[in-house]
Design brief:
single chain; 293 residues; alpha/beta; 7-stranded mixed β-sheet
């Protein structure tokens, strides 16, 4: 009898250790998303440093997001080859890109689509979706003068259908021009934000403003909404230049305008952790965790 009890205790201990180990492995394998926007410029007298942020990517595993304005000034083949490709380009195979307005300085952004190929989606659209771990991603085209963003547009109709077909517990959207910012905004993206809000999306990542800003969860009208609101990160810190803030907007929680860096997100099945990783020699950072809706 004592022998049987001892065996039961031994098996219980082995099972507990195995389960603990499995949990640790699962935690370690949660996908990582890391990146920024507004990255590389050719022939500039500005204080630029895309190599500083590319070096950060060298030591961070995971999927890279590039949130537009990647190769200044006009997103040409030459800009991509001489500036972007020599820095962030070494991570191209693991990059999910979004187009910015500088890509469209070349009409139709052909060089952007040539550079990234199928990873950039249909060249006539510039928006696409995919899954990473348990998360659903939508990458959108905020150049609304090129690909319409408003009510009844093909992009908005596609987004609504895509979100309905992928009711993931956690959803993230990436595009270039922010709806909310203490620097520069794009009201054209409000219908897109509304569709994401209606579907219970959790995160929006933008660039365009050449600084870092984190907003508390809010609704499409900019009202704080801790229950259903979407958290927006502006990460225009890829290395092109710095831009100061204007009037600080409601729900803006954290800001920095003098540090290049990348935002690193660890995507758990029902939550996420964030950390802003600064370029070498800088001390600004920002971190936290939030449960998905």
């Amino acid at each position: 009898m004592k022998k049987d009890i001892a065996l039961e205790l031994l098996w219980a201990f082995i099972l507990a250790v195995w389960c603990s180990g499995s949990s640790a492995v699962a935690q370690a394998q949660d996908p990582v998303l890391v990146g920024a926007g507004d990255i590389a410029i050719c022939n500039s007298s500005k204080l630029t440093d895309p190599e500083a942020t590319a070096k950060l990517l060298d030591s961070i595993a995971g999927t890279v997001f590039a949130a537009g304005d990647l190769a200044y000034a006009d997103g040409t083949d030459g800009n991509f080859a001489k500036c972007y490709d020599l820095t962030w380009g070494r991570h191209r195979a693991r990059t999910v890109p979004a187009p910015g307005n500088h890509e469209y300085n070349s009409p139709g952004a052909p060089h952007y689509f040539n550079y990234f190929g199928p990873a950039a989606g249909d060249p006539t659209k510039g928006y696409y979706s995919f899954d990473l771990g348990t998360w659903h991603f939508v990458v959108l085209n905020s150049n609304c003068s090129q690909v319409a963003c408003g009510t009844g547009s093909a992009q908005l109709n596609w987004l609504q259908a895509d979100l309905a077909a992928h009711p993931a517990f956690c959803t993230i959207a990436i595009w270039h021009h922010p709806l909310f910012s203490s620097t520069v905004t794009s009201s054209s993206m409000k219908p897109i934000w509304q569709a994401l809000y209606n579907a219970g999306a959790d995160l929006i990542l933008n660039g365009h403003a050449h600084n870092y800003e984190r907003f508390a969860p809010q609704d499409p009208n900019g009202a704080a909404d801790p229950a259903k609101g979407i958290r927006e990160f502006i990460v225009g810190t890829g290395g092109e230049s710095h831009v100061s803030f204007g009037t600080i907007q409601p729900n803006s929680e954290v800001r920095n305008s003098n540090t290049f860096g990348v935002l690193e997100l660890t995507l758990h099945p029902t939550s996420y952790d964030w950390q802003f990783v600064p370029q070498a020699g800088k001390t600004f950072t920002d971190s936290g965790s939030t449960v998905c809706h």
